[in-house]
Design a protein that fits this description.
single chain; binds iron/sulfur cluster; 375 residues; 2 domains
Length: 375
């Protein structure tokens, strides 16, 4: 017989975060019938809803299937009891990120509006400290030249260090996640009566073909097209995803340019054109996402809004910073400082925001796929 010790606080937290009537789930299966993913996954998401209603937090923290959901909302519409499976799964993904994060306090800052001042002031204070150490924390005289305010050497050095530190945090979180998933799987196979104990096993190596298939699915946004309720999300997500990838390449080239070539680049330089195209894709995609979420406010939590608005402000302020340089605006350096804070926010918190979703989702999809192949 399986022993279950319901985590009541966990059930209340899920219900509070989503407005779900979780404990009224009657296991009718309407959510599974409406989910396009349920064809190749066992009673998804009905199984996750019963585990959530029973407060099986440890099992759910080790469930990679919650990451395969792309929050189309079809199941929530079809649920007759107001359980909102799509929203519950989104809350579970957020809960997993906090559960596995190191340092955990940064992840907690992304969860509650009470931490908003700290989340903003922390990166701003560090940038001021760096500028003070570099001896350039003042508005330069003459034509607008951002390297007079933040030299390329200090900019590249500090932002690279930040990215490396954040990535170490992301890798630690992913490693803890995969270990827990495989531990839980082994426990389930060998000792179903004790679901929350066991030794860490060796994770099976997923086949290269499986990894490529998952990456192909993510990059093509194929799963989004199967949504009935929110089909337009595939376009907005596609714009944001590829706009960001384009900007990532451009940023990499810009860093090289500051070292080996001439910088800033002319407005007609192909790299500059690619950068502006990426920024417009990002701005258009994130603007539509914000409008979409304003229409369906009950499907967004604070962490979603924090990330989305930061992302939008990052892109918009980047475009203004470019315009301020060309037109010699008097407040160009103030805009530039604001833009730098936004860049720091995105990089510093990426292991704990929607960016982390891309990492966890990729790993979880590879795990679930390799699990099916193994089975
Ligand atoms: S979550 Fe809703 S649709 Fe799914 S099994 Fe429970 S009551 Fe039925
Ligand atoms: S939100 Fe969409 S993808 Fe996620 S479980 Fe519901 S129907 Fe499936």
């Amino acid at each position: 017989m399986i022993e279950i010790s319901p985590d009541i606080a966990f059930i209340e937290k899920l219900q509070g975060a989503t407005g779900s009537q979780l404990t009224t789930c009657m296991q009718c299966g309407a959510c599974t019938a409406s989910c396009s993913l349920s064809e190749d996954q066992d009673v998804f998401p009905r199984k996750q809803m019963i585990m959530a209603a029973w407060g099986m937090r440890d099992r759910l923290m080790a469930d990679p299937h919650v990451w395969t959901c792309h929050q189309c909302g079809d199941c929530s519409v079809s649920c007759p009891r107001g359980v909102k499976p799509g929203e519950i799964l989104a809350a579970l993904r957020q809960e997993q990120i906090v559960h596995y994060s190191k340092p955990a306090f940064l992840a907690r800052w992304m969860q509650k509006p009470a931490f908003f001042p700290a989340a903003i002031l922390f990166p701003a204070a560090i940038i001021i400290l760096i500028l003070s150490l570099a001896g350039t924390f003042s508005i330069p005289e003459g034509p607008v030249d951002y390297s007079e305010f933040f030299s390329h050497a200090w900019l590249n050095g500090s932002f690279t260090a930040l990215f490396v530190l954040s990535t170490i945090g992301a890798v630690i979180g992913l490693r803890r996640f995969t270990r827990n998933v495989f531990t839980q799987r082994t426990v389930q196979k060998t000792n179903p009566d004790k679901p929350d104990q066991g030794q860490s096993p060796q994770a099976p190596q997923p086949a290269l073909r499986g990894i490529l298939t998952v990456l192909g699915r993510i990059m093509s946004h194929r799963d989004f097209n199967s949504c009935d309720e929110q089909k337009s999300r595939s376009v907005t997500h596609f714009l944001v995803f590829w706009g960001f990838i384009l900007l990532l390449f451009v940023t990499f080239f810009a860093i090289l340019s500051t070292i080996f070539f001439e910088y800033p680049l002319s407005i007609l330089n192909p790299i500059k054109i690619a950068g502006n195209l990426g920024a417009m894709m990002l701005l258009a995609g994130s603007s539509f996402m914000i409008l979409n979420r304003l229409r369906k406010r009950d499907q967004s939590n604070y962490a979603d809004w924090f990330f989305l608005l930061s992302f939008w402000l990052l892109t918009f302020s980047g475009m203004l910073v470019e315009g301020a340089r060309f037109h010699e605006w008097s407040f160009a350096y103030h805009l530039y400082f604001f833009h730098l804070v936004m860049v720091w926010i995105i990089i510093l918190y990426y292991p704990y925001t929607k960016f982390a979703h891309f990492l966890y989702r990729t790993v979880a999809m590879i795990i679930t796929r390799s699990g099916r192949q193994a089975g």
